[in-house]
Structures are given as C-alpha cells and as structure tokens.
Write a structure and sequence with these properties.
6 strands, Rossmann fold, alpha/beta, 6-stranded mixed sheet, 45% helix
Length: 200
C-alpha cells in the first residue's frame, strides 16, 4: 500500500524520471480525477536521460498529462561532483513550479540517514524543502514496484543506479545491506520518526 504524510495537494507537478518510483507515484496521483497535475522531467545531458525522454513523452501523451522538460543551464564547476551538479540543476528547474511532488520513499530516507550519519550529523529527508514536497517517505520502494506490477505499468531502468562511482550507489548497494544486518528494523525506526513528526 502506498502511504503518504500530510495532505496531498490538489494541484501539483510530479518530478518524473520515468523510473519505477515516479511512475508509481504519477499513476497513484492520477487515480484521483479531481487532481490537477503535470509532469516535470529533467534531462541530465546523459544518454540515460535521452533514452528516458522517449518513455516519459509517451507516458505523458497516453495519459494526457502536460509534460515540462528541463535541461542543464550551465557547465559543471570544478568544485561540484556530478551528483551535486545534477541536484543543483534539478532544484533550479523545480523552482519554477508552485508545488513539486517527488517520489522519494522510505529506502531513500534510510540511505540519506546513513549517509549523513557517516558525515557526523544524522539527518532525514525533510517533508518539505521550499516548494518541493516529499510526502511518500513512509512508503518502501518495494510497495511502489508492487503498485506498478499489479497495474501492469512499465518503467525505465536507470543503468547509472548500479554505478559504484556514485556515492549514493555505494551507500545503497554496499553499506545499507550491512547496516540492516546490524539493525534489521532500521527502516521501521526511520518510518516512525516521520510518523511522529508534526506535518503542517
């Protein structure tokens, strides 16, 4: 079951990569016919983004949803990692919308908590960050994939998610599995932290 924090906005833009997470959330939100929604796809200037763009455009056309495509506005500076550069450019793109809903989920929250803990300050992905809303942080990724499978939805597989040159993938594929051996209930702990929050 897809669960969410707070009240979902009636009008929103979904950050849509074409991956299983964003496909599940877009479909979930589109099930409510009273919701006004558009999709926002950010092209990272990579071959993966180029391949995903075809899927995203086809999804939007078939579902009759407006699609806005954002692209890089500058070259990466020397003091930015590729991940930082893409994140900064995505946020710049998202700042043009009133409310952006992302498909960040409980697994993302666990990864972020571990990553920030390793840097000396444990932090959770916030429920809101400016105009960006993260309401699905209590739903595990497995539920999003299950939603897509049950509804016969297709999605794009991002090959870069397996690339261990990116720190997020080292956390996801190597550190999280070991952390769960130490504390198998870690996801439950993180989920409870969100459920105990006062969401306005």
């Amino acid at each position: 079951m897809i669960n969410f924090l707070g009240d979902l906005p009636r009008r929103c833009t979904v950050a849509f990569s074409g991956g299983v997470d964003s496909v599940a959330i877009a479909d979930f939100l589109l099930n409510n016919n009273k919701r006004e929604m558009k999709l926002a796809f950010f092209h990272h200037g990579t071959q993966t983004s180029e391949e995903a763009l075809d899927f995203v455009q086809d999804f939007a056309e078939k579902r009759r949803v407006e699609l806005v495509v954002g692209r890089l506005s500058r070259d990466r500076s020397k003091d930015e990692s590729p991940e930082e550069f893409w994140r900064n450019e995505r946020l710049r793109f998202f700042s043009a919308f009133e409310t952006v809903v992302t498909a960040h989920h409980l697994d993302d929250a666990v990864e972020t908590w571990i990553f920030t803990s390793l840097h000396g300050e444990s932090r959770l992905i916030p429920y809101t960050s400016g105009n960006v809303l993260h309401p699905f942080l209590v739903t595990p990724k497995s539920e999003l994939k299950s939603w897509c499978v049950r509804r016969g939805l297709s999605w794009c597989e991002d090959k870069s998610n397996e690339d261990l040159r990116f720190m997020r993938n080292v956390i996801r594929h190597r550190i999280v599995p070991e952390a769960l051996k130490v504390n198998p209930g870690l996801s439950t702990v993180i989920r409870k932290k969100y459920l105990d929050m006062e969401i306005e």
